């Protein structure tokens, strides 16, 4: 809400002050998008199975955030590894969300649940960054 108001105000300013500002605003826009990054949402199986709702995620290079919602009574978390990245979100119970963020280069990464035994039982997938 606040960010969109600021963006709207900046657009009005750019229009009011003419071509020079409008040009620099156009250059600034892609950088702002890259900083915001990609947010991916994931859900653990509601019935307690050792599964996420997908085994495949995609994102653009840059900052990537994965948010796991856990609707089951089994405690889970989200974690990410590959290409020198190794990050784990907090372990959460029913109704909780676990989050992991990293700045990623192109390539393939593994997202998984770091609770012992869960990855081996099937809670994992591939994040492809392009
Ligand atoms: Cu788990």
Question: What would your notes on this structure say?
Answer:
The chain has 130 residues and is an alpha/beta fold. It folds into two domains: 2-35, no CATH class; 37-129, Cupredoxins -  blue copper proteins (Immunoglobulin-like). The chain is built from three helices and eight strands, in the order H-H-E-E-E-E-E-E-E-H-E. The chain has helices spanning 2-17, 19-36, 118-121, and strands at 38-43, 56-59, 62-70, 79-82, 85-88, 96-104, 107-112, 124-129. The strands form two sheets. The chain has a five-stranded mixed beta sheet. Strand 4 (79-82) and strand 5 form a beta hairpin. Helix 1 runs antiparallel to helix 2. 22% of the residues are buried. The model is unreliable at 6-28 (pLDDT under 50). Copper (II) ion is lined by residues 76, 113, 115, 118, 123. The site of copper (II) ion (CU) has 5 residues, from loops.
Short description:
The chain has 3 helices and 8 strands. It is an alpha/beta fold and 130 residues long.
Mean pLDDT score, rounded?
83
Beta-strand content: 35-45%
| Unreliable sequence segments | 6-28
Write down the CATH topology of the largest domain.
Immunoglobulin-like
Count of DSSP-assigned helices = 3
- Largest β sheet strand count, sense and barrel closure: 5 strands, mixed
In CATH terms, what is the architecture of the largest domain?
A: Sandwich
Structural class determined from secondary elements:
alpha/beta
DSSP strand tally: 8
Strand adjacency order, main sheet: 2-8-7-4-5
- Domain unit count: 2
Radius of gyration: 19 Å
Shape summary? globular
| Main CATH class of the largest domain | Mainly Beta
SSE pattern, N- to C-terminal: HHEEEEEEEHE
Oligomer: single chain
The CATH homology group name of the largest domain: Cupredoxins -  blue copper proteins
